Amino acid sequence: MRRASLLVAALMAGAAGPQVADAQVVTAGGSVTGRIGYGSNPYLSLNSPGDSGVAGGDLTAWVQRASENSTTRLTGSADIDQNFNYYGRAENYLARLEHQQTISERLAVTARLRYQDSINPRNFFDNTNSSNIDLLSIGQRSRTFGANANLQWTPSARDSFYFGPQYSRSRYPNQPGNAFDQYGLQGGYLRQVTEKLKVGVDLSYQRLNSRAFSDSDSYQGGLRLVYDFSPIWQFDGGVGLIHQISRPGGSATTPGFNASLCGKYPRYSVCIEGSRQSAASGFGGLRTDNRIGAHGNYALTSRSSVNFSMLYDVSQSSGISTIPTQKFWEISGGYSRTLSERLSAGFSGRYQYRDYGSLVAAGGTSVTGFSGTFDVTYKFGRID
Fold it and tell me: Nearest to residue 7, comparing CAs of 94, 81, 89?
């Protein structure tokens, strides 16, 4: 926990600094969770030795500085599990910095930095509540640094342009030969056609430099549609083509899409999402990732709620790499009850499945894993 303590101390030290003029407000807060439970095969490995009790917890702290035209937020997370048998100790860390700046009435920019040191498939959710799981590196520790920026220009009430670069650097301490770097650009245009409908185009480019596989390029483009069915339900999706080039290795073109349908009611919210896009892997080069999922929560009372998430993911080679198709699915859920303004308790569970396919020469090709825990969470500082 020493790394976790240093992380939180650094965040709180930043929050204690003097407030600056220009009406800037500094706030800080976070949460600490303890859990105990039971599970099996957390890394989805073949020939799992058996079940095990587990105890652990996570610590998250954040500090934010906001003014009339900008917001800067620094977040740090540490997640540690100690298995009583077989699987040892798992430590996962995340640091994230985000800055949002309104330059003028028509121009705004967002920039993000992120560092993650974790064992796949333990992923910290991003701002869209989706996680990026590389199916070929499940069970491997990865260290990833990422940066991206987005510039949004709104020349009129009906028109919006967006553009931004992306970069990530992934390393595997136990498999140094599988390191890779990824560069990208994404941009697009949206036009407000009616009160409920927006249409436009979405374009992206991705470059993968891999130590173990051929360097690759991916071009993706298509039409985008945003439709508000009501003040509660919104659809946001696009469809187009993905063109992948591997040198050496040839090229491949395949359909691509991404879509989400989300609804938010006073007592519950739900999102259904799906996509087919290029995805980088340190163990398979540039691949095509197909996924469908859903997540949501429901307030049983003013003090208790339940949540769920589901994901089905298929990773394919698209004819460029010879690594076979991989399949993964996960179902998770939980119950939480608020005991006081800062204290809550509940239960959470997860079930996972992985199909190795022809990566396994003989015997069974699929494995499962599960976990169930009792959790207690305490919030400190400013409550979001």
Answer: 94
Counting as low any pLDDT under 70, the low residues of the chain are 1-22, 121-133, 282-284, 318-322, 358-364
According to CATH, what is the number of the domain 103-338? 2.40.160
C-alpha 367/C-alpha 92 separation (Å) is 23
Please tell me the distance from the alpha carbon of residue 100 to that of residue 109, in angstroms, as a whole number: 6
CA–CA gap between residue 218 and residue 285 (Å, rounded):
12
pLDDT at 360: 61
Give the pLDDT confidence score for residue 345 in this predicted structure: 99
Listed as own residue / partner, the contacts of 19-28 with beta carbons closer than 8 Å and 24 or more positions apart are: 22/67, 22/68, 23/67, 23/68, 24/65, 24/66, 24/67, 25/65, 25/66, 25/67, 26/63, 26/64, 26/65, 27/63, 27/64, 27/66, 27/381, 27/382, 28/61, 28/62, 28/63, 28/64, 28/381, 28/382
